[in-house]
Amino acid sequence: MKKLLLPMFILLFCFNIQAQQEDEDGERDKETGFLIDENFGKNELSINALTLIAVGAFDLSYERNINEDSSWSTELWVQFNEEIADEFSRDLAVTGKYKHFFSSNYARGFYVHAFGMLSHGDYGEEFYYIGDELVEQNEMKYTDFALGFGIGGKLISSGGFKADFSGGFGRNLFNNDSPTFTGQIMVNLGYRF
């Protein structure tokens, strides 16, 4: 039951974000009905504050809005904290993501996303014995590619400040020495320009 609380919280939070943003006033495009957002550009830069604090990893994202209801992003994850790195398998990852928004606002509100992640790290250890004596201990390194999906919600302030909350789940595809599943929980803070 506890494992379901976080996804349920994220889902309810995202629906709340969408309901709040749909109440905003603004000029709408006559053809599409989407709110016109003339104050900002189509680029967004953000950092995942949650992973920086919780696991000591630098997770930087660049997002480009394609149109009013979709965007793509590229994310770079680098693990710096050595103590946590021993327990956390991913040391380096590059992720590409496509988001589709379900809001009448320009590229914000509730969304679903699909992602592809190329990751590298340590996953477990190999032990070599002669009789009862440990001869050698090696960390098992892996490099793998995962496909996955997730949900989220994005808020943009009138000044361009961005808060993006999302969670995703994927599966590594090619390496038997990698974790079977991978995931992302993101609290991205940044700026749209």
UniProtKB/TrEMBL annotation:
<feature type="signal peptide">
    <location>
        <begin position="1"/>
        <end position="19"/>
    </location>
</feature>
<keyword id="KW-0732">Signal</keyword>
<protein>
    <recommendedName>
        <fullName>DUF3575 domain-containing protein</fullName>
    </recommendedName>
</protein>
